[in-house]
């Protein structure tokens, strides 16, 4: 069955491919499914991502580099929630995603989880990491 609902990430500074590549380096079973770039004379900067679909741990996402400037960006009120199988996995992902980004909730026990952390990555995407 084809996945009907996808998280769609819009980047404004030509960072879509860099973000997609970074995310794929962090998760198993990650791959680019489709990548289309802006060409000469198109509205986006030539070579940037016109549309891409990629998968992380079997879940598909979409992204693009918006050719239109917007007065908004990513917000932590919408985040990607990752259930980690091990403490080592959680610590690795937290460190990588927090680098160059911002810590919203430091790693700790918050009552609802033995170990949890929430970060914005260097691209502004928000991630909640939870030890299952």
From TrEMBL:
InterPro entries per record: 3_dmu_93_MTrfase (IPR009725), Glyas_Bleomycin-R_OHBP_Dase (IPR029068), PhnB-like (IPR028973)
Residue stretches making up the PhnB-like domain: 3-129
CDD domains on file: PhnB_like (cd06588)
UniProt xrefs under PANTHER family: PHNB-LIKE DOMAIN-CONTAINING PROTEIN, PROTEIN YJDN-RELATED
Name of this protein: VOC family protein
